[in-house]
Amino acid sequence: MKIVIVEDELVAIRNLRNILQQIAPHTHVVAELESVEEAISWFRTNPANSFDLVLSDIQLSDGLSFDIYEQVEIAAPIIFITAFDEYALRAFRANGIDYLLKPIQPAELAKALDKVQSRNQPVVTQLQLADIQRIIAQSAAPASYRQSFVAYKKEKIIPIPVERIAYFYIDNQQVYAMLTDHDKAPISETMDEIEKQLNPDLFFRANRQTLICRRAIVEAETHFSNRLVVKVTPPAPEKIYISKERASVFRKWIAR
Q: Which of 175, 177, 212, 227 is most deeply packed, by most CB within 10 A?
C-alpha cells in the first residue's frame, strides 16, 4: 500500500513512519507534505494511481487540510488525524469518514488500515467536508465554561474563581487546584470532569496528572526523547512533562 502523509510536524511524521513500520511493514510512504500549498501542488502533479491512502492532519501551518480536498479531487480514501475534541468528531462519525485522534496509538492505526483494505472506503465529498467544517466551527464557538470551583475544608465551603487557579494536579489520587497565591485546595471532581468544563484556550491537559493554565506557564524546554518540560508558577510539586506526541499539540496551543 502506497501512503501519502499530510502533516506539518516532523516529530509526528517520524512517529507515523515508526508505527507504520511496526504494524504494516508492507506499506510505503511515497510523499510527506507539510502544508496546504505543497499538498495541492503534489496532488495536482501526481496521478491518482501513485498512492492508495492519505493520512492527513487537519491543522497545518498554512490552514486546514480541508482546503486541499476542496481544491483537488482525491479518489483514494483519507484518514484524518486530529486533535479536535469529541464534539467535532461527531462529524466524522456521521459522515463515515475515518479519523485518528492524537496521540496516535498503533492499535488504532492498524484498525483503520484494516478497514481501508477490507472494504471500499467512501471518497470525501464536498458535502461531507462542508458538514465537518460546520460542526468544527460550532464546537470552536464561544461556550459557557466553568467560572468557579468549590473546595471543602473541614466545615467550610470555599468558592474558588477560575482566575485564581494556576493549574490542577493529582497527588495520591486526590485532585488539587494550585492557586496563584501558592495555596492549594482539594477538588472533589476528577481531572477528566474538570477538563471538560474549562475553556480549552486557557487550560491545557499536559498529561494525566496535570492540567495547566496558560497564565501560569513560564517556559517550556525540550527534554530527552523530544518530550517537553513545562515550568509554571507557582512551582509544581513535580516536573510537568508533555510527551513527544502531545508536544506538537502544545506548541500549536501556546502559539494561539
A: 212
Which position has the grid cell 460542526?
A: 135
Judge contact between 230 and 222, C-beta under 8 A. no
Secondary structure element (H or E) that encloses residue 219, with its range: strand 217-222
Q: How far apart are the first and last CA of the chain?
A: 37
Q: Which residues of the chain form CATH 2.40.50.1020?
A: 148-254
Among 50-59, 87-96, 116-125, which stretch is predicted with the lowest mean pLDDT?
87-96
Query: Beta partners for 147?
Result: none
Domain(s) labelled CATH 3.40.50.2300 in the chain stretch across 2-140
What is the CATH number that goes with domain 148-254? 2.40.50.1020
In this prediction, residue 87 carries a pLDDT of 44
For residue range 184-195, list pLDDT tens digits in order.
Answer: 999 999 999 999
- Of 119 and 174, the one with more pLDDT: 174
Mean pLDDT of 228-250: 93
What burial class does residue 64 get, using C-beta atoms within 10 Å of its C-beta: 0-12 exposed, 13-18 middle, 19+ buried?
Answer: middle
Alpha helices, H only, the chain:
10-23, 36-45, 66-71, 86-95, 106-118, 126-140, 191-197, 244-254
Buried/exposed 80-108: b ≥16 CB within 10 Å, e otherwise: bbbbbeeebbebbeebebbbbbbbbeeee
Fold annotation for 2-140: Rossmann fold (3.40.50)
